[in-house]
Amino acid sequence: MSRNPNSPYPKSMTPRALVLALVAMASVLLFSPPAAVADDVKAPADFVALSSVDHSIIQEIRYATPHNFVGAPVNGYLQPMCILTKPAALALHHVQLKLLRTGYSLKVYDCYRPQRAVDNFVSWAEDLTDQTMKGEFYPDEDKADLFTDGYIAAKSGHSRGSTMDLTIVKLPAARTRAYVPGEPLVPCYAPQDARFPDNSIDMGTGFDCFDTLANTLDPRITGVQLSNRLMLKNAMEAAGFTNLAVEWWHYTLTNEPYPATYFDFPITWSSLS
Fold first, then answer.
1. Of 52, 59, 176, 267, whose Cβ has the fewest other Cβ atoms within 10 Å?
2. CA distance 163 to 259
3. Active-site positions?
4. Where are the beta strands (DSSP E) in the chain?
């Protein structure tokens, strides 16, 4: 396996693999079967569209587009929208109100994720011939190691409805150009002005970067990049969210209403009550 030569961690003991192994074990212990996979299955009544709670939070739902590590829209993302449990959406709204007063806004990349999308990730990871997006999302990671290193798993907290991937944007928000399939790819840990343009403040890596540099408190992340990560972390924790230490963008409502249930309704307005 080829890895980032600057990583201070031995391959077998990466913080990401250790943390995600513990999360996976907890998920297995708590797991209850997901809902059916039919497209007409509905979300529980307390799931809402984030835009119905807060119009001002920017949404850039990557898995509804080809600009993600799979390189194609992901199964279950029928519309580019953020769906969350109502308690998670309300807590995110409180974060946004505080950020707006300082000239910033939240931007979500992903929210509720149906189990069928997680299954899509697993199938993609098992196909070692598909390296389409390696140059951007996992340049130093051998695709054969995605499971053992904890980047891909059979279950995701996103499917419980109170986890989201997000960042902070300076207002007024610059326009983010569309990704063009087949365009040259730049590593997700490249300097901000070199990697794919994103109106996020500089977090040191792009979203979904399969590299230890994406660990929230990686010691190589310093200065403005660290300050930006801590701005997000402090704001989210104050509203009752917990960060996944191996991904600076990943937060879960601490008192989530469905800690043991993994849903599979598709992401579309018609799934909501």
1. 52
2. 11
3. 247
4. 47-49, 58-59, 83-85, 104-110, 163-170, 241-243, 250-253
- Rounded Cα gap, residues 120 and 118, in angstroms: 5
Beta partners for 110? Answer: 165
Contacts of 266 (CB under 8 A, 6+ apart): 39, 41, 76, 77, 78, 114, 116
Neighbours of 180 (CB within 10 A): 9
Interval 248-272: pLDDT, tens: 999 999 999 999 999 999 999 999 9
User: 17 versus 218: which is more confidently predicted?
Assistant: 218
User: Are 77 and 267 spatial neighbours (Cβ–Cβ below 8 Å)?
Assistant: yes
Q: By C-alpha distance, which of 257, 249, 270 is closest to 62?
A: 249
**In what helix (H) or strand (E) does residue 238 lie, and over which residues does it extend?**
helix 223-238
